Amino acid sequence: MTQIQCSSTDANPLATQAGMFRGWRVVAGAFGVTLVGFGSAYTFSVFVAPLQQAFGASRGAASLVFSLAGFLYFGLGVLSGPLADRFGARRLALAGMLLVGLGLALAGLAQRLEQVYLAYGLGVGLGVGLAYVPVLGAVQRWFTRRRGLASGLAVSGIGVGTLLLPPLAALLVERLGWRGAYLSLGVLALVLGLAAAWLVEDDPRRHGLGPDGDPPNAGAAARAAQGATVCEALRAPAFWRLYAACLLCSFSVFLPFVHLVPYAEAHGVPLASAVLLLGLIGIGSTAGRFLLGGLLDRIGRGRALLALFAGMALALAGWALASGFWALAAFALVYGTVYGAWVAVLPAVVMDHFGGRSVSGIIGALYTSVAVGTLAGPTAAGFAFDLRHSYQWPIWLGVALNVLAVGVMLRQSSPAGARA
Q1: CB 132 within 8 A of CB 78
Q2: Nearest CA to 148 among 287, 285, 292?
Q3: Is there a domain that residue 209 lies in?
Q4: What is the pLDDT of residues 153-170, one digit of tens each?
Q5: Is 24 within the bounds of a domain?
Q6: Which of 316, 334, 327, 319 has the alpha carbon at shortest distance from 280?
Q7: What does the DSSP assignment read for 321-355?
Q8: pLDDT value of position 327
Q9: Pick from 114, 122, 71, 115: which is nearest to 96 by CA?
Q10: 418 in a domain, yes or no?
């Protein structure tokens, strides 16, 4: 594999300053991008009933709006990752946040459900797809010893966004209607998202730094600059085992973000309380990223990922058995914690296995597995509800698929760098 060396002329002594390591600024930018992008996307559960009523749509047809967006924002990583490796993550993140804001605003102007598919699906889907993988890839290059912690902090924006934006969306729908709510969220996404994207930078060597703030000629900097190309990763059995496990898991991983609120309402939970369940997923998700990121570095990220697939299966089984608010609240907290840790550890596992040379492109290729599951899972669950007026079989199918993911990961060997 080609190793990129950094000569002594690359280092700028003035760029190495006392105080906070510049990589944490990149983490803060990634945090803001994921908060705005995914927080906006995960408000969708609040809009399911209004969209059904406004357009006379079935549960499955309304759910397809989210599934299309999810397919795009995970599937587009296979293109946005290599583009970020070539042109820089900041440009991709800025374009993505612009699209998210415009997509939300245009969804509020839609006169037919098909127009919501285009506005929300293309706007939010393409927008998050352009920004997500590039900002995660940028964070990986700034850290080695604390990569799991940094990744966890960066994607904890998803959890905070899930905690804050769905209740805000519910309040806006109540006060302004669903159209006004989408317009308001669009403006918010433009202002906050563009500011966060500007903080993202790709390479610590441009500031005379190595990963973790070490000197740029340290061994960690050299290791971060080498690794597999996308084509080399696609020829590796380890990549395809990881891909298969993520594909199996992803059929169910986003079911709660679309269907937990309708599920709770069907079991007699008032809408205001049902929306709080999404906030509890956000709290758990944030805790999973903040509290488990560093722990995963110590116990070994490969083994941790195996445990998280098992935890996802157990959490979903708890959902299938829950009916009242408190049981659903317990599920939401546990599920959010496991989901948050899963999202946090995946990019770090990719970096451990394949290095930093084309990390954004490899993460993007891996996330096409999540794109397929996101397109199929929530939509299938919606149509299953239309047919049987129950979510039981989609949830139990999710349990079974995560158990299969555990079996796949049991065959995965740990790379040398999997334990930080």
Answers
A1: no
A2: 292
A3: no
A4: 887 888 788 888 988 998
A5: yes
A6: 334
A7: H--SHHHHHHHHHHHHHHHHHHHHHHHHHHHHHHB
A8: 93
A9: 122
A10: no
All residues at 6 or more sequence positions from 108 whose CB lies less than 8 Å from its CB, including other chains: 178, 179, 180, 181, 182, 183, 186
- Using CA atoms, how far apart are residues 64 and 386, in angstroms rounded to an integer? 13
What average pLDDT does range 288-317 have in this prediction?
78
* Structural domain of 274: 20-203+215-411
Asked if 307 and 412 count as a contact pair (C-beta separation under 8 A), the reply is no
Query: Which DSSP symbol is given to 7?
Result: -
Residues 274, 275, 276, 280, CA torsion sign: positive
Longest dimension (CA), the chain: 67
Rounded CA-CA distance 278/257 in Å is 7
Spatial CB neighbours of 38, under 8 Å, sequence gap ≥ 6: 128, 132, 157, 158, 161, 162
CATH code at position 372:
1.20.1250.20
Q: Which of 131-140, 172-181, 196-205, 354-363 has the largest mean confidence?
A: 172-181
Q: Burial level of 69, CB count in 10 A (0-12/13-18/19+)?
A: buried
State in Å, rounded, how far the first CA of the chain is from the last one: 22
Only one residue has tokens 């994921």, namely: 34
CA distance 32 to 97: 10
Q: Is 326 part of a structural domain of the chain?
A: yes
Number of separate domains in the chain: 1
> Sign (positive/negative) of CA torsion 395, 120, 247, 137?
negative
Residue 187 has pLDDT above 60, yes or no: yes
Neighbours of 20 (CB within 10 A): 9
pLDDT of amino acid 212: 62
Lowest mean pLDDT among 28-32, 213-217, 330-334: 213-217
What's the angle, vertex CA 199, arms to CA 213 and CA 124, rounded to 5? 130
CB atoms within 10 A of CB 235: 10
Residues 6+ apart with CB under 8 A from 102: 123, 127, 186, 190
- Could you read off the pLDDT of 19-43 as tens digits, one per residue? 677 788 889 999 999 999 988 888 8
